[in-house]
Each structure stands twice: as structure tokens, then as C-alpha cells.
Design a protein that fits this description.
Structural class: alpha+beta
Strand order of the largest sheet: 3-2-13-10-9-8-7-5
Helix content: 10-25%
Radius of gyration: 28 Å
Number of helices: 3
Distance between the termini: 25 Å
Largest sheet: 8 strands, antiparallel
Order of helices and strands: HEEEEEEEEHEEEEEEH
Mean pLDDT: 79
Low-confidence stretches: 15-21
Number of strands: 14
């Protein structure tokens, strides 16, 4: 019974040590656009009357990225740059015909915060490309030539979303149609950003300390066993 109590006390001590480990803080930046109406519709570069496309509903998008927290008080503004992010499109179903989970290397951006943590300015460009899988029909992929891009910029005060493609029809064979480009745009402001702080324990320090404590316990146990085995 005494051994059980000793191990319970040791486990409690380890738990307290782990809880007291230093933690690093990360900032999660999330941007959600307002609804963006269709602002232009072109066919082979020629603008078409928007009255012909009243059935096309507005769209919206959201994305987020994580960056290590910095001491904002050190400078009048602090820039947070990113290349990795999560993205989802809030839109009528079927607007985009391929998975929105592959981005070109040009995608990314930055956000500037003032010393109080308020968003000062930002510039983001996301370019989405079609995900190629073993099931992808490469002929249709080449003919359709999908292109999707979105921009949000505080200097212009505008969000822009572009969906460009070539409709493909079957006429004894697949035939590429005229290039269609749908453009959506609308205003933006700093209120579109939400910034949350997430505390993450430092795994390296925690693991090292825990390994050391367990090593001490094991060494003491081995020593006790050795002492108990000695002849009287």
C-alpha cells in the first residue's frame, strides 16, 4: 500500500511539473470576407451584360493562418507573414468544380498590427489550382484550364475573387468553349479580421524534464532492488 501511495505522489508531482512548464503563444489570424456580388462577366475578354446573369449569387470566402506571438510594444507596427493557411469558400454549391485544397507557391501574404494589437494593413493573394489525382481526366483538365484567385488588400479597400475557365462540350469529342471569367468584388475593412491567442506547451522542455524525472525514479528503483538483494 505504501508503494502505491508513493507512486501516486510521484505522478501528482510530475503532473504539476508538466502544468507548470513554460508555454509558447501563437496568434491565429482569421479573415472572412463580406458577401461579394458578381461585378463582371466576360466571354473571351468581352464584357457581357450582368442582367443576363442575375442567377449567379454572391460569394464569400474565409481563410486563417497561425504565427508565433511577438512583443508588439517593441515597434509601432509588427508584420506577420504567412505561406501556409486553411481556406474555404462560402458560395453556392457547384461554383467551383474541383477541390479547393491546392495552392500555388505564389499564395500567401502579410498582416501588420499596431502596438495595441489592432490590424493596420494587410495584403493577401491566394491562387488556387486544380488538384490532379489518378482519377483526373487530363484531357478535360487541359481544355478547361481552371484558374481561381482571390485578393484582399487594405490599400485598395477591396476584396476580389476571380473564377476563370473554359466550358467543355462533347461534340463527337471534347471541344473547348470560349473563355469565361466571373469576377466578384466588394469592400473590406479591418473588422473582417479576428485574432485569437492560443497557448501551446513547449514539448521539448516538457519531454526533457519528464525524461529526467523518470530516469531518476528508475535509477532509485534499481538501487533499492540492488540493496534489497544484498545478503544480511
Amino acid at each position: 500500500m505504501r508503494v502505491i501511495y508513493q507512486w501516486a505522489a510521484r505522478c501528482s508531482a510530475i503532473a504539476l511539473l508538466v502544468l507548470s512548464f513554460p508555454a509558447s503563444a501563437h496568434l491565429v489570424f482569421t479573415y472572412t470576407s463580406d458577401e461579394l456580388p458578381l461585378t463582371s462577366y466576360s466571354i473571351n475578354g468581352e464584357l457581357d451584360d450582368l442582367a443576363n446573369h442575375t442567377d449567379i449569387l454572391p460569394i464569400a470566402f474565409t481563410f486563417s493562418f497561425t504565427a508565433p506571438e511577438q512583443d508588439l510594444s517593441l515597434n509601432p507596427s509588427t508584420k506577420f507573414s504567412f505561406k501556409n493557411f486553411t481556406f474555404s469558400l462560402i458560395s453556392p454549391e457547384g461554383l467551383i468544380e474541383f477541390p479547393l485544397d491546392l495552392f500555388s507557391e505564389r499564395s500567401g501574404g502579410w498582416v501588420n498590427l499596431d502596438s495595441a494589437g489592432n490590424v493596420l494593413e494587410w495584403n493577401v493573394l491566394l491562387r488556387i489550382t486544380e488538384l490532379i489525382t489518378p482519377d483526373t481526366d487530363l484531357i478535360l483538365h487541359r481544355l478547361a484550364r481552371h484558374f481561381v484567385a482571390l485578393k484582399t488588400n487594405s490599400e485598395t479597400g477591396e476584396d476580389k475573387f476571380t473564377n476563370r475557365f473554359h466550358p467543355v462540350e462533347w461534340e463527337s469529342r471534347w471541344v473547348q468553349g470560349a473563355k469565361v471569367q466571373q469576377s466578384y468584388s466588394g469592400g473590406n475593412d479591418a473588422g473582417n479580421w479576428i485574432i485569437t491567442k492560443v497557448t501551446v506547451p513547449e514539448p521539448g522542455i516538457a519531454g526533457l524534464l519528464l525524461a529526467g524525472v523518470l530516469g531518476l525514479f528508475w535509477s532509485r528503483r534499481e538501487r533499492n532492488l540492488t540493496d534489497g538483494a544484498k545478503p544480511c
